[in-house]
Amino acid sequence: MITPESVRVSGVSRTEEIAADPNRVIVFDTTMRDGEQAPGFSMTAQAKVKMAQVLRDLGVDVIEAGFAAASPGDEDCIRRVAGEVEGPIFCSLSRANEKDIDATFRALAPAPKSHRRCHTFIGTSPIHRTAKLKMSTNEVLSTAVRSVEYARSLFDDVEFSAEDAFRTEPEFLADVLEAAADAGARTLNVPDTVGYATPQEVRERFAALAARIKKRHPHVIFSAHCHDDLGMAVANSLAAVEGGARQIEGAINGIGERAGNCSIEEIIMALKVREDRYGVTTGADSRHLVRASKILCEITETVIARNKSVVGINAFAHEAGIHQHGMLADSRTYEIMRPQDVGFEGSWFVLGKHSGRHAIAKRAETIGRPIEGERLAAVVAGFKQRADQIGEINDAELIAIIDRVDGVSEVVAQYA
Ligand code: KIV
Ligand code: ZN
Predict the structure, then answer these.
(1) pTM of whole model > 0.90?
(2) Of the residues 225, 227, 261, which should be mutated to test ligand 1's pocket, given the most ligand atoms within 8 Å of the CB?
(3) CATH 3.20.20.70 residue ranges in the chain?
(4) What are the backbone angles phi and psi of residue 184, rounded to the nearest 5°?
(5) 221-233 per-position pLDDT tens digit
(6) Could you identify the atom of ligand 1 that is nearest to the CA of residue 249?
(7) How far is the CA of 48 from the centre of ligand 2 (A)?
(8) Rounded to whole angstroms, how far apart are CA atoms 67 and 74?
């Protein structure tokens, strides 16, 4: 039986070590919990271990590996992940009750004590209190406090979430979060559970909460957990950082309940590319982003949009002639990050009807068929005609066009 006495924790947690740098944003990945909760994203234990390995390589700080009390299977999955992958802090979600917190404790037992986090939550908004929990504000507050106290008897590192925070009365939200901090929560998560808030509201709410609660708890870490129902999850997470949040929760490819969560690849690159604006860093090695995205697609048998920010196959592809010309002169004309920095080998040009002579000539040279002058003009004309018919022109098609112009190819007949 688990008793507080049997497990009382001491020493510095990994979270405290990271948070010693005030400009460091903790990256909390919930691909395997909030992400997995969404239809179509269920994962086996083996898949979770594989996903956790790439998340470790990516350098996320916290991996929420599941919701231990959800099923015995999920408890086992979390236990396997926590035992087989070393490095990050491991976390499991728990409702605000002892049974869930005990399940989290059992699931995280294989991880070192300094790397275990209990994440407990309760709904705080009027609609959650009345329709779902059937609790008064006092009951919600005292349940939150009791669960944090119990979690702290088992874990040094406890995160408390006020579910549906952005539809909660600001005063009551601050009361609950402050009470959770008083009870020992080290991280206070302020979720926009239904993706309702706007960036300005988020920035102001975080700033106001920090102004009040940091007076009593200067070291408490504020965390953002934004959903994407209105497409603002990443913008809201960035606004939270401006308001003082130092933990961002998200998921690879932005998966999660309904429209999903803040996309980890987008937030990591936004903070990196615009460090000038946000002035914070993460511990991420962004070169693993594409691999993480691909592994998740394989595991969940899903595809992402071609134009998905950062990791989509169009993210560093160029077809328009004006863009290809600019890219050939200097890639900074049309790219704000290097493809290698997110794990692609490089940018690439897609040849199609929008491509111009510079890109066609460059590609011809690359494939060993240099063309210039009148020959180039004739190839460009043949190229445009063919592109109108079939869209993308691959190398074989380009060779065929050049051959036709040179009058040497058997493919000539197709174009006659
Ligand atoms: O969206 C949400 O509020 C959550 C909490 C449980 C953190 O996922
Ligand atoms: Zn969520």
Answers:
(1) yes
(2) 225
(3) 14-300
(4) 120, 5
(5) 999 999 999 999 9
(6) 7
(7) 19
(8) 7
